[in-house]
C-alpha cells in the first residue's frame, strides 16, 4: 500500500522507516509544512517522495498524522471531509480526548483510527528518526468501536508488524493515564533543568559532576516545546491535577527535612521504592 | 597492596572488583556489619576474605569506607585513631563537609583522603556490584591540601587506574554542587514515584503505558533509603535550598498552565532546553 506521513519528525520519520522495512507500505509519501524537514526526510530516504496534502490524499491507502496535537486539531477536519471510503486516516498524537471530540459524529468517522505509540526520545526532526523505536512498546488505540472494522484491522495489522503491544481505552482514560506516566515526567524534567540552570551558575561544574542519575532525570528537558506545549494545553486539567499532587509530595519531603523527621522521611522513600514492582 | 573495603555493597563491591582487575590491589579484605552481604561478597569472589575491622586494619595498606555517610561519621574517628603512618584511609561518601569537619585537626589527618566517585546505579548490595561502574566518570577529591603527599598520590594513582577524571574542590563546594546535580534528582524521582503510585491506582496501567521517558525520570526512586536518608540529613541546608527552587519552578509552571499563558510556558521550556548544551 501507499502510506502518507504528515509530519516527518521523530515519530513520523521512525514510522516511515519501519513501515517500509517491514513491507507494510511499498511507498511512503511525505507531507510537511517545514520544507527543510521534508527535504531532509527525502535526502535521508525516510520518504520516497514529497507531496502536498491534497496530492497525497488522492493516492494514499493510509494517511498518518504525526504532528503536534494542536496541528492535528487544525488539519484533521479538512482531512476527514476528503477521506474516501477505501482510505484510512490515523493520528499518533499524545492527547486523545479533544481529537476524538472533533471527529465525533463526522460522516466519515469510521475511516479514522486514533492511536498513540508510547515511544519516543527527547530529540525531534527527521534526523531523530530511528528504526526499532517502536519494538516491544505499547500502542494505545482509542475508541475503536467508532472505527470501521476494516480500518481498525489495517491499523492493528500494522501494529503487529511494528512488534508492538496493543492497549485499548477511551480518550478520557488515555489522557488521564498519560498525564500520570508521561506528561508529569516531562514537567518535572523541565522544572529540574530550570532549577539546576538557575542554581548552578558555573555550568562547567554540572558537566564535571553530573553522572547517570542526573542525566536520567533531566534528559526529557531536551524535548521540543513545539510538541509539548500543545500536549499540556490539551491535557491541562489532568496535568494540573497530577502536578498538584507532585508539588504536595515535594512539599511533604521539604517539611520532613525542615523538621528533621528522618524516620518519616525513611518511610516515604521506602514507599516510593514500591515503584520497583512496577518497573523492571 | 592489600586493600580493605568497609561496606561490600554497590560502590564498595564495584571498587573491589575493579581494584583487583586493574592490579591496583593484590588482595581485598571485606568488612561489613551485614554478615549476609559479607558472605555474599565472598561467594561472588568480590572479596578474597572476610575480617573484622580491627584485623583488617592491621594488615591493609589502604582502607576504603564505602558505607552510608552516617556510618562513615560513626566509624571514622576510631579508624583515624588506629591508622598507622604507612596506611591510607579514604572514604567514598556522598557528602563531604561533615566528614572533613570530623577529621580536621586529627593528628593522623594526613593519612586520610576524602573522595566521592560520581557513579552509581539505583541498586544496592553486593549483587549490584559491577565492573566498569567508574570508567570515564568523575572522582571528586576534597581538601587534598590536608592529605599527606604520598597518601594523595596513592589515591590519585588508583583513580587513574579506574580510568576516572579527577576534580578537586573543598567539602563545602562539593556538598553544594552535588545537591544540584545529584541529590535533587533523587528527591524529584522519589516524589514522582509517590505521585504516580498515589494517582495511578491501577498499577497495571502504569506497566502498560510507561515508556522510556517515565522509566528514566523515576528509576532513581528505586534507590535505597539506607543510603539516601543520611545524605539528605548531612546535606540538609543545600538540599532544602535547591528543593525550594525546584518547588517554585513547578509552581510557576502550574500558574502558567492555570492562566493558560502558553507563550510564557513555551519560553520556559525553551529555557530549560539549554540543558542540552551541558549534557551530551
UniProtKB/TrEMBL annotation, chains A, B:
<dbReference type="InterPro" id="IPR050812">
    <property type="entry name" value="Preph/Arog_dehydrog"/>
</dbReference>
<dbReference type="InterPro" id="IPR008927">
    <property type="entry name" value="6-PGluconate_DH-like_C_sf"/>
</dbReference>
<dbReference type="GO" id="GO:0006571">
    <property type="term" value="P:tyrosine biosynthetic process"/>
</dbReference>
<dbReference type="InterPro" id="IPR046826">
    <property type="entry name" value="PDH_N"/>
</dbReference>
<dbReference type="GO" id="GO:0008977">
    <property type="term" value="F:prephenate dehydrogenase (NAD+) activity"/>
</dbReference>
<dbReference type="Pfam" id="PF02153">
    <property type="entry name" value="PDH_N"/>
</dbReference>
<protein>
    <submittedName>
        <fullName>Prephenate dehydrogenase</fullName>
        <ecNumber>1.3.1.12</ecNumber>
    </submittedName>
</protein>
<dbReference type="GO" id="GO:0004665">
    <property type="term" value="F:prephenate dehydrogenase (NADP+) activity"/>
</dbReference>
<dbReference type="InterPro" id="IPR046825">
    <property type="entry name" value="PDH_C"/>
</dbReference>
<dbReference type="Pfam" id="PF20463">
    <property type="entry name" value="PDH_C"/>
</dbReference>
<keyword id="KW-0560">Oxidoreductase</keyword>
<feature type="domain" description="Prephenate/arogenate dehydrogenase">
    <location>
        <begin position="1"/>
        <end position="280"/>
    </location>
</feature>
<dbReference type="GO" id="GO:0070403">
    <property type="term" value="F:NAD+ binding"/>
</dbReference>
<dbReference type="InterPro" id="IPR036291">
    <property type="entry name" value="NAD(P)-bd_dom_sf"/>
</dbReference>
<dbReference type="InterPro" id="IPR003099">
    <property type="entry name" value="Prephen_DH"/>
</dbReference>
Amino acid at each position: 500500500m501507499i502510506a502518507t506521513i504528515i509530519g516527518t519528525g521523530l515519530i513520523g520519520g521512525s514510522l516511515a522507516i519501519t513501515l517500509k522495512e517491514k513491507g507494510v507500505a511499498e511507498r511512503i509519501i511525505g507531507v510537511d509544512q517545514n520544507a527543510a524537514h521534508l527535504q531532509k526526510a527525502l535526502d535521508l530516504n525516510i520518504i520516497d517522495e514529497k507531496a502536498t496534502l491534497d496530492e497525497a490524499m488522492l493516492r494514499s491507502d493510509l494517511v498518518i498524522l504525526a504532528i503536534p496535537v494542536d496541528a492535528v486539531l487544525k488539519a484533521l477536519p479538512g482531512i476527514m471531509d476528503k477521506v474516501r471510503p477505501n482510505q484510512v486516516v490515523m493520528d499518533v498524537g499524545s492527547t486523545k480526548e479533544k481529537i476524538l471530540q472533533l471527529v465525533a459524529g463526522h460522516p466519515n468517522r469510521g475511516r479514522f483510527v486514533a492511536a498513540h505509540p508510547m515511544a519516543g526520545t527527547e530529540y525531534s526532526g527527521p534526523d531523530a528518526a530511528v528504526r526499532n523505536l517502536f519494538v516491544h512498546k505499547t500502542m494505545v488505540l482509542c475508541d475503536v468501536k467508532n472505527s470501521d472494522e476494516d480500518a481498525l484491522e489495517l491499523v492493528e495489522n500494522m501494529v503487529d508488524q511494528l512488534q508492538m503491544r496493543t492497549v485499548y481505552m477511551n480518550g478520557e482514560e488515555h489522557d488521564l493515564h498519560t498525564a500520570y506516566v508521561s506528561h508529569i515526567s516531562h514537567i518535572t524534567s523541565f522544572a529540574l533543568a530550570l532549577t539546576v540552570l538557575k542554581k548552578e551558575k558555573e555550568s562547567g561544574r554540572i558537566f564535571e559532576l553530573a553522572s547517570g542519575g542526573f542525566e536520567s532525570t533531566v534528559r526529557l528537558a531536551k524535548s521540543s516545546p513545539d510538541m509539548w506545549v500543545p500536549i499540556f494545553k490539551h491535557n491541562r486539567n489532568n496535568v494540573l491535577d497530577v502536578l498538584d499532587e507532585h508539588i504536595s509530595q515535594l512539599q511533604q519531603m521539604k517539611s520532613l527535612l525542615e523538621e528533621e523527621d528522618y524516620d518519616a522521611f525513611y518511610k516515604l522513600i521506602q514507599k516510593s521504592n514500591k515503584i520497583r514492582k512496577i518497573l523492571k
